[in-house]
Amino acid sequence: MVEREDIPALDVRYVWHPFTQAGTAGPALEIVSGKGAWLHAADGRNILDLISSWWVTLHGHAHPAIAGAVAEQAKRLEHVMFAGFTHAPAARLASRLAKLLPPELTRVFYSDNGSTAVEVALKIAWQYWHNKGETKRKRFLAFSKGYHGDTLGAMSVGSSTGFYTPFDDLVLPVTFLPFPATWEGDNGAPEKEEEALAKIDTVLANESGGEVAAVIIEPLVQGAGGMRMCRPEFLRSLCGRLREAEVLIIFDEVMTGFGRTGSMFACDRAEVAPDIICLAKGLTGGFLPLAVTICSEKIHNAFLGGDFGSAFAHGHSFTANPLGCTAALASLDLFENDSTLERVAAMEDLHRRRMRDLSRLSNVHNTRVMGSIAAFDLEGGSKEYGSSWAQHLHEAFLSRGLLVRPLGNVVYLMPPYCIGEDDLHHAYDEIFEVVSHLQAG
Predict the structure, then answer these.
(1) Whether 140 and 15 share a structural domain
(2) Are 153 and 204 in a shared domain?
């Protein structure tokens, strides 16, 4: 009889976990399998995944349609370099994405994850102006508390989050703009938007004259910054101003893409098209790392020429991996065949009803809902990401079988679309109990 490996011991000895202070964190919980919205731990616990395992799992864990498609593709072609070669899954996926997105977005560049999708977008925007001879455009605009990933360029446009203090001397020049965050019942939203747009007008008047390459924004919902939401009206007004100033617009839809806001993409819900869009996370339904940066034909054409000097010299070993592309195609099939967006609409309605219940508690503030995303601010704890208070809150939820990972004092839910109505109601009942105890204490 072969003894079972001690996986937690191996983990403690050899693994370095992300966004974790190893000096204070306890042992990582071993997950052995998942099905639907549930994770199954080695110690026998069943855990309801209310954050889609960092926002990637769309249709549920181990979905048989995606698993089967990946297995079949693995028997034919697991990978081939993408410089000078192509394959059916990549070509088909690019075509399907272009047909789903606004008609301006037609050229698909593959990469590996959200950070690299953003990095690619920033480099494309920078080189676009360089290729056109406008070499003074060396500044980016971004939004306060926005988060775009952890590579150098992505850190630069997300440095206002405070995550990257050790790297302050490395980041690119970025001007941060105000983000008019709003919530349910916020009557002051239009006034905040006017104030934000006035400040943006000042920045554009002072800096757009040949200096700004592009602006990047998480449309409608800032994720890691605290699930901060803005109205579509603000996004439309913003993009109108940027068009007049001839500033390229990058939408970071790494989190908001693929139904999270209730529409297939946030740009659909806002009824506005960017010049460049970044997609990752849910692209493969949560099965494999894959990302795309998609731009307009106008931008792509600026890289065409008679020599390599104007080409976009960027790539990754696993660019357009056939397994990842196949998973993405299978995920898109599920959107078409399983009435996925209708499920998201039903989830949004449930979120709104249960958030009204939570808002009766005196320590719950600023409830907000959009699509599959629901969030609220919890009074009495630290706003700092990774604080011991947030960790204790995470453990309190976990003890009740819920995977909820607060962002400082922000508690949010972003479940897989397959979650059952009864399971989601149960989750809200448990959250109500935890928050009620905090209020009483």
Answers:
(1) no
(2) yes
Of residues 374, 348, 333, 356, the one with CA closest to residue 263: 348
User: At 122, phi and psi to the nearest 5?
Assistant: -65, -40
pTM summary value: 0.96
Question: Could you tell me if 247 and 212 are in contact, meaning their C-beta atoms sit under 8 angstroms apart?
Answer: yes
Backbone angles phi, psi at 260, to 5 degrees: -60, -35
Do 78 and 176 have their domain in common?
Answer: yes
* Residue 245 lies in domain: 67-336
C-alpha to C-alpha distance for 224 and 242, rounded to whole angstroms: 25
Residue 104 lies in a domain: yes
Q: Which residues pair with 266 in a beta bridge?
A: none
Instruction: Judge whether 199 lies within some domain.
Output: yes
What does the alpha-carbon distance between residue 211 and residue 221 come to, in Å, rounded to a whole number? 27
| Count: domains in the chain | 2
User: For the segment 101-140, what is each residue's pLDDT rounded down to a tens digit?
Assistant: 999 999 999 999 999 999 999 999 999 999 999 988 989 9
310 contacts 337 by C-beta, under 8 angstroms: no
Indicate if 351 and 290 belong to the same structural domain. no
Half-sphere exposure of 325 (CA within 13 A, CB side): 28
